[in-house]
Specification:
Immunoglobulin-like, 815 residues, DUF5916, DUF5916 domain-containing protein, 45 strands, mainly beta, 24-stranded antiparallel barrel
Length: 815
Amino acid sequence: MIFKNLVFIASILIFINLKAQDIDPNKLSKKEYSAQRITEAPKINGFLNDPVWEGTPIATNFLMVEPGDGNPSRETHRTQVKIVYDDEAIYIAAYMLVNEPDRILRQFTQRDNIGQADFFQVDVNTYNDGENQTRFIITSAGTLADAKMSGENEDYSYNVVWEGEISYDDKGWYAELKIPYAALRFPKKEEQLWGLQMNRKITHLNETYSWNYIDKSVGKITQHNGLLRGIKNIDPPIRLSFYPYSSIETDQFEGNNQTNFNAGMDFKYGITDAFTLDATLIPDFGQTAFDNVELNLGPFEQAFGENRAFFTEGTELFTKGNLFYSRRIGDSPIGFNQAQRESIKNEVLIENPEKADLLNAIKISGRTENDLGIGFFNAITKETRAIFQDTVSGDFRYKVTEPLANYSIVVLDQQFNQNSSISLINTNVVREGRFRDGNVTGFLFDVFNNSNSFNFNGEAKMSNVNKPGQNITGFASNFEINRTKGNFRYGVKHDFANETYDINDLGLNFRNNYNNFFWNTSYQIFEPIGKLNRFTIQIFGNHTRRYKPDLATGTDVGGSFFAVMKNRFAFGGSAVMESDFKDFFEPRREGHYITYKKSLGGETWISSDYRKKFALDARISYRDYFDSDQENYRLRLSPRFRFNDKISFIYSLNYSVTNSRNSFVALKPEDIIFGNRDTESVENSLQGSYNFNTKQALNLSFRNFWSVANFAKGQFKSLQDKGEVTAKNYPIPPNEDPNVNFNIWNLDLSYSWQFAPGSEAILLYRNSIFNLSDQSQLGYEESLERLFEQSLRQNLSLRVVYFIDYNNIRNIFKS
């Protein structure tokens, strides 16, 4: 009796305390939902009238994520969800009620592009580890989107085959989803325990709601999932699918026509319920997007994003430690530049392939029941040769510019405590013959304390480069501590690399030989204040040093501001003061540097409400160098027009100018020549689409980039030992004019049709023009006229990919 009284009194006190703090009990613990087993699957058509949905338990009481913090959903906009399952898939019915259906935004888009529409979202974490989950989204227009999530990072290049349909009536809109087990990876257990989160976006109200409360002031969003129980004794089908493709293309350039036919196949095989093998056999990347090539005047190579689906889908394990730059595979042969310069007397270079062909690639990845992630990646590129011909004898000479090469990655990633992980990764490149090989090993940790108020993360990486008769070992590390809870946050970081650290066989590393220190502090809000939905104010500082010899290269301090208003108008800016900076890379000779004077720079930007038919992004920045004539300024304008729910265009203009910058001109045996260089760049791009529906669309992509670099006449200089420059009489040798005019034009026009789940046909027309000259006196319009005098390359291609599920084939033969 006494115990019951104590329990009663404690309950009253807890209730009074909750009321006093105005805390919703839904925020205090993880919500749970128990899925029901069914014997007959619902028909996925968006009309929730199948018998399986009658009497099924409801998940409801969604809470606000944006703009508020945990406010109950509006009575007029309640959300209800039901979940059932069988041996093939889980099925979800979602009821999105509204009081004004006509206000629902329904922009038609293609897969993985949400646009201006309401959406319903399901996050499934089959290991309930607070870190890795798969995201499924369906919009109020019926567009599907899916992503692989690692923490708060979303990878929408990840695509799996699942189904979703919608319907409408005068009470709201409804979604019906089928997520096959083939789209998920999970441990083999009698009963599954999955992390589950569901979200609803009401775009015209600018409000987002979640099923389980998300405390934005602490940890990661993925740590605030609820639980999905009840999935028991499932016997999932064999996970084996094939993606055969065929393509035909015709290419026309300088009067030459070439037609090619290609066929090949990708496939996925579920080795176990948790591990999947992906392979590409006879790969075809003919329809990958153009790279955004620019005039590169700096000491480093230009880096490009990955456009090949195989190297972007499901690669979250392999990108740990930033040791994997997939563009290395099938990149320019390591002997390409040498072959360009090598031809001897009476000899001409008649062929020098710019890319090494990929023969095949595989990846195996998954996670065990004990949260150990295991990944293995391997790719092989074939030998590439340059061909020289003797103009006298007519004989041919062949030079191997890239031998047969093998690229591999092995990753182990142990996660624990719902929020932390330690990882070991190794990348390895082996080239046949007496060529360079590379090996890198990294140890990583990412650990939160129990209250998620602090994060400790770091890396230790060792590189090893083997050249004929030479073995070079390097080391790099970083360590970071961050406050991750509350409005006020702060952090410190240290980055280090010795002078021999080199990961560029399979990674991307511009700089080494540094010893840098960073700090930052910020204040942010999680609930609206006045007209502001959210804002963040940050102050930061950096101090960079050379490791050998130990000397300071620069220090900067600055601040930034970011804000979003209730009407979805966003704005912000930043300002940074930099000390004198010693640049050890611009001189292109080891141990030398040039000093750039201290400077002050800033930028400001705005972004208007994308829900409106017309919206604008704009950014302007300026930097002035003290005690120097150097200055930089940049302008970016990007208006977007949504004419209706089917037609939209985004135009972008980028304009930048740099005046009087001390820049590298030439490297001489006992001298390094610099000059005052002015550069000007203009980039115009246009993205447009006409969506017939969510499965068919016409897409336009256009880009023109022009840049000119012009050195002041007679103002050349010699670089001195302490980073200063002195006047130098430097007559420019023939054929070495450093002035340059660069212009490139790319246009893609495509029709895409998703004619079946996982299957697609794309008809693509593209053209391109390129011109590079030393006519730096030409302005943009004159340069564009000269560009159109060059030969136009045109290409027309058709590519068809068809998805085949082994289980469907088996069932056909059984019947």
